[in-house]
Structures are given as C-alpha cells and as structure tokens.
C-alpha cells in the first residue's frame, strides 16, 4: 500500500494586503499591451502563505485508516473488532465521544444503545445460540421451511442460510444499507456485524457493495474527511481541521473542503449556497419578467402585454388605470397620434417611468451581478477549450522548438482559468456585500483584475506560430504575471477585510 501523500494549498486563508501595492497596465506607442509593476513589499504575505495540511487517500488507505482507529479503541477497551466497528459507527467514529460514554455509562445500557450484544455478558450456550445445529430439523423464522442448520447473531433469532443471503443482498443492494442492517426478527435491534455479514452474504458482488457502503459511511461521518466530488474519482481528503480551504485531489480537481463545491474564494460557503439557490429560483423568472412585463404606473401590478395595441387597461379592480405601454403615461392625452407616442416626455410619463425604475431596482441589481457571474462562467467554459488548442499549437511548434520553450502557453491558460474562477465568485461576494468605502476599493480591484484577465484572454486567442512565438512569449508572460498580481491584491484585500470586520453582508436580498 502506498504511503499517504501530503499536500498543501499554501493558505487560502489569512493574509494582509499592502496599501503600497500598485500595478498598472498601459499601452505603448505600438498599441501593444505592456504591464508596469511596482513590486510588493518584502513583508507582504502572499494569498497562500499559511499551509493547510491535508492528505489525499485512496480507498485502500481509507480502509486502513478505519482499522487503525479500531485498533486504537481496542487497545483501551479490549473489545472484539466487529463490536468496536459497530460502536464506532454509532458514535460517528468519534473516539473521544465513545470513551466518554463508555466510562460514564452502565455496560448493559451502553451496548444496548449501540444495538450490539454485550461481549462481557455470559449467556448459557451462546455459541449454540449463534449457530444452531440440531439433529431434529427446525423451522426457519423467515421462510418457515424445515432446515437442519439455522444461523443467528447470538440474539436467539435463527434463520436458514438461503434467507440470510437474500435478506442481506436486499438490504445492501436495494436499500443501500450497511452499518445499520438489523436482525431480520421483528422488534430485534441487534445489528449485523462485519464478520457475520461476510460469512452470511456468500456473494462476492454483495460483499463488494457492502464494503463500498461502509467505507462511504466512514468518510461521511468524519468531519475531517470528504470525498472528492469529481466524477469517477474514488479518493477522499483528510484534513487536520474542518475549514473552508482549497484542497487539490490527485485527480486534479480543486474544491472547498468545507462545502465540497468548486473552490469559490472570495465568496463564503454560506453566500455561495444562497446564491446557487437564488439563481435556480430567480434567474430565468427575473429575466423573463424584465423582458416581457411592466408595472402599472398607478398601482405597480405587473402586467404582460398580450396584444398589439399599446392602449393598456390595468386589470386590478381597484385601479383600472388607462395608460400607454410605450411611455407609461396616461392614455387620455395621446389623442390621434398614439402610434408615435408624441407625448413621451410629458411629466406624468416621466414620473411613471421613475416609479417603475424604483420598483424594479432590486431586480436590476440582481440581474447585474447574475449576468456578470454567468458571463465569467461561460468564458471559463470556453477558455477551458483553449487547453486543447494550445496543446495542438505546442505539439506543432515542438518540431522546431523544445518543450520547455513553449510550456509558458499552458501555464498562461492555467492562470487565465484561475482568474476567471475568482472573478466569477467575486460577483457572488459583491452581491451580498453592503455598501461602504471598502466595497469601493474591492470593486476597483475587481475592475483592474477583470481588465487584465480580458487582455490575457485576447492575447492567447490570437494566432501564435513559430515565427512570432518569441514576440508573443514576453507579452504572455507579462500579462500572466500581472493577472496573478491583481488576483493577489483582490484576495488579500478580502481577507484583510474579514480580519478587521470591514465587511457587512445583506441577510436577505429579494428581486
């Protein structure tokens, strides 16, 4: 078995933004983008300075970790391993909680609550109760067929091997149960232990599924472990503390250890959860309402225009206001020139438009942030395709150049995608942020990073050949470095804001 590998995300946590940091991007006389940089002070911490230690575990390593915990508990309690496994699962694999309850409880009550037989209680003929083999045939408690050998868990309820096999297969494969499979007898709470399951199931596919389920339960119960959410990945991450930090799986997927979503700094886990829910509920509805409806200028009831005539009559029984769909003014003064709407600038129409604008301000605010969030998401999807295009260019150029000479292109795409991701989640952060002076600074940093990212994206999408590779290389390197610095400034400012309580967030924002 391979040893556990240690990784570090180089801190996505606390860091300080230097007020002396300044970067600028200017155009020279040849209209080429150049980046002028004032370097960060030496005492300025990078966004990834404090290590977040974690380990990426394979399934075999997870199983071994389970066994290690069982051994640690058994060194203290001296219990059979199969009993220890059930008790640990009952306490969600929290050793400290198990020890505390064990030494403070009556043994009988302790094992009863864990739904396991007391291993220290002496029972007459326990072995024969666990596995009854009699000269006289007995009836199975499930199929009621006569059987020479009945098998049980020690609780006194015995069944034939065929019924056990079918029962365990159904519980495991159909119901998805593993650690909580009970004795088939009615009102019996005793759980099937690991060793008994392996003997009674007698089917390699059922046993394999059972082992997958108990491994999955072990990871999900442990606050310091999380499965990698990438499709078809079987690795789990084990960390030293449950914090919202970025972790990188061996499969290459980076995600938030706290919530399991793609790494989403600067947005918090709670903000992202609210945002995703809001987008699912509101985005399509809000866009449709904004494009297809207006509010009555008098009572603000939302109205959909379902005909070609611009003469509208509010259907609200308490209103019944006549108005023009185009200018939202009263219909009465339109006269014979209603098609051209020549009274568009009259005071009443202006007031109606202002009222509608005020009524929809919250919707407009949401759509502002949603459209920019969605735009960066779409750009990120498109720029992920750059990898294949860049790889093809690198392969072509390696006939005349070395691999190391063209590797900067792939590195630049990595930086570009990283910046797109940060910008995408920066709009989630900004949406819930209350207005203050620090938000203005944040939006300035956001704007600078956005401009730099667009320049890098444009540069990488240009035609790159062997002839212009050296000319393009310096420009790509400069832009990549500048984008990284702008991302550094934005993230450090956000972290500094959390440290100094600069940020105030909206509890609820309606559209």
From TrEMBL:
Pfam families: Ariadne, IBR, IBR_1, UBA_ARI1
BP-aspect Gene Ontology terms: protein ubiquitination; ubiquitin-dependent protein catabolic process
Any Gene Ontology CC annotation: nucleus
Family: Belongs to the RBR family. Ariadne subfamily.
Domain of life: Eukaryota
Protein name: RBR-type E3 ubiquitin transferase
SMART domains the record matches: IBR, RING
Source taxonomy: Eukaryota, Metazoa, Ecdysozoa, Arthropoda, Hexapoda
Enzyme Commission number(s) from the entry: 2.3.2.31
Alphabetical list of Gene3D superfamilies matching this protein: 1.20.120.1750, Zinc/RING finger domain, C3HC4 (zinc finger)
Reaction it catalyzes: [E2 ubiquitin-conjugating enzyme]-S-ubiquitinyl-L-cysteine + [acceptor protein]-L-lysine = [E2 ubiquitin-conjugating enzyme]-L-cysteine + [acceptor protein]-N(6)-ubiquitinyl-L-lysine
Residue ranges occupied by any RING-type domain in the UniProt entry: 136-345, 140-187
């Amino acid at each position: 078995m391979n040893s556990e590998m240690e990784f570090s995300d180089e801190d996505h946590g606390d860091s300080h933004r230097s007020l002396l940091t300044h970067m600028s991007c200017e155009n020279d006389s040849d209209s080429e983008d150049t980046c002028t940089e004032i370097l960060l002070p030496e005492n300025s911490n990078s966004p990834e300075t404090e290590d977040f230690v974690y380990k990426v575990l394979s399934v075999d390593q997870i199983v071994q970790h389970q066994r290690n915990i069982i051994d640690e508990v058994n060194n203290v309690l001296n219990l059979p391993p199969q009993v220890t496994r059930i008790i640990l699962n009952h306490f969600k694999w929290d050793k400290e909680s198990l020890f505390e309850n064990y030494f403070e409880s009556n043994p009988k009550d302790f094992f009863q609550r864990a739904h396991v037989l007391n291993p220290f209680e002496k029972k007459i003929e326990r072995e024969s109760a666990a596995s009854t083999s009699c000269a006289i045939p007995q009836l199975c408690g499930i199929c009621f067929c006569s059987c020479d050998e009945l098998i049980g868990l020690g609780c006194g309820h015995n069944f034939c091997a065929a019924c056990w096999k079918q029962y365990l297969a159904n519980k495991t494969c159909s119901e998805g149960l593993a650690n909580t499979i009970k004795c088939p007898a009615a009102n019996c709470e005793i759980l099937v232990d690991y060793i008994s399951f392996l003997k009674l199931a007698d089917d390699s596919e059922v046993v394999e599924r059972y082992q997958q389920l108990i491994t999955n339960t072990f990871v999900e119960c442990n606050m310091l472990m999380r499965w990698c959410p990438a499709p078809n990945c079987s690795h789990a991450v084990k960390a030293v503390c449950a914090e919202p930090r970025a972790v990188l799986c061996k499969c290459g997927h980076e995600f938030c250890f706290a919530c399991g979503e793609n790494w989403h700094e600067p947005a918090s886990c709670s903000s992202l959860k609210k945002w995703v829910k809001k987008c699912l509920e509101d985005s399509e509805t809000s866009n449709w309402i904004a494009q297809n409806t207006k509010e009555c200028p008098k009572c603000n009831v939302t109205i959909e225009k379902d005909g070609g005539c611009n003469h509208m009559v509010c259907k609200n029984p308490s209103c019944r206001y006549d108005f023009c769909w185009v200018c939202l003014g009263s219909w009465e003064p339109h006269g014979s020139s209603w098609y051209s709407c020549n009274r568009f600038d009259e005071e009443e129409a202006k007031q109606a438009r202002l009222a509608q604008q005020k009524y929809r301000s919250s919707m407009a605010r949401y759509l502002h942030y949603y459209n920019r969030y969605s735009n960066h998401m779409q750009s990120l999807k498109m720029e992920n395709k750059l990898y294949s295009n860049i790889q093809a260019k690198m392969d072509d150029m390696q006939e005349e150049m070395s691999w190391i000479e063209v590797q900067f292109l792939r590195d630049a795409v990595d930086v570009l995608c990283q910046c797109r991701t940060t910008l995408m989640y920066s709009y989630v952060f900004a949406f819930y942020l209350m207005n203050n002076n620090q938000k203005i600074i944040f939006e300035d940093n956001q704007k600078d990073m956005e401009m730099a990212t667009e320049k890098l994206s444009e540069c990488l999408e240009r035609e790159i050949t062997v002839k212009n590779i050296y000319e393009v290389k310096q420009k790509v390197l400069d832009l990549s470095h500048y984008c990284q610095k702008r991302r550094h400034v934005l993230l450090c400012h956000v972290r500094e804001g959390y440290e100094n309580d600069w940020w105030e967030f909206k509890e609820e924002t309606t559209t």
